[in-house]
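Tutorial, part two.
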Amino acid sequence: MFGEPGTSGHVVTGDHRIEVPLDHGAPDRGTITVYAREVRAATHAGSEQPYLVFLQGGPGGRAPRPGADAPGWLEWALARYRVLLLDQRGTGRSTPMDRHTLARLGSPSRQAEHLARFRADAIVADAECLRRHLLGDRPWTALGQSFGGFCTWTYLSFAPEGLDAALVTGGVPPVGVHPDDVYVATTAATERRVRHLDAVHPQARVVLAEVARHLERTEEHLPTGERLTARRLAEIGALLGGAGGPDRLALLAEDAWSLPGQRLSDTFLATVADAVSYATRPLYALVHEACYAEGGVVTGWSARRVRQRLGYGDEPVPGPDGVERLPLTGETVHPHTVTADPALAPLAEAAHLLAERSWTEPLYDRDRLRANRVPVAACVYTEDMFVDPALSRTTAAATGAVRVVEDGTHHHDGLRRAGPEILDRLAAELGGAVPEPRPLTSEAS
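Running the prediction step on this input gives:
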């Protein structure tokens, strides 16, 4: 129910909690709690605005919070909607999953079987339970960012009656594409971004290679307790996927040494830990590759296999000038990631079982997507390092009622950095399917 209301500035918030089946296909296997925070403009509190449900990126990312954590797009949405910030199952206040809660399940096989119920199909079924609880038969609008866009396409496949319209940013999924082909495309995008880093900050990867050689002979530990290795250091390449990523890596390299060549600085180690630790999002690492798997596909640590097949190693390699540079990985999870990260290590066996699982549960229905009539506007970032724009265009072209907006200015985090601008462009594509904005404050205030 809508409880524990609060007022902060010009918004009113409240909580919704419902019990849903752990396995929607077998409701007798127990339940979990799904939580969503409702946010409304205080000046609109007495009106019947339509609902917008936010489908967060991830997998395994909880929804943002109003207040200090409020995303820039929230005010845009509040001028038009009552906003539901849904904590996807296993995150935030929706029966969170981590090494402590999963340990209570016992064996790795039971943990893996449990985690297999935390993909987009289950998230959409949860959202439908919440929608029916709040609105009965009436539909709502979805805003899907990144993995939330993947969930939106699953929504269009299996519950289109629940959607009035959909807005998607950086999240048109590669429907019908094998995970290996996804990682071939995103590896190429990562290498383009690495070349840009080398062009604007030529010394950054040189310093990181020196750090990697240092790590071969000297133990250095992250604040999490993990011993840092060159392979884990390479995972900071994921920072390149956001705006300002090359600058962030260059600043990181500047802070590398406390005692040059002898000891890494605490600032460097803490920043690396923030970038590579999965303590705040364990589900991301555990079911990331499963986001791309259906039709009996076995992921088998696809990203790692693809990098090896393409000839990328873990050791620093000489560039054309003979100077060593550290290879960088992108949005990928590797076997060594789960065995090294203290937040994941107790779940390593379960993670390997998930990598060996044949994913027969469908994530999309191609026939229903072709016949889709729900109006969708999707922003495709032409420089996206995480969701390949060419694969996104193919999916959009094969889905009915989808209008694509190309954005060559922003990166994958465009919604967070330029949300109102991007959403204005998407709303213009949908016309009357998006309500006209209303003032968020009264004239008296």
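The chain has 17 helices and 13 strands. In part three we will examine how such features are distributed along the chain.
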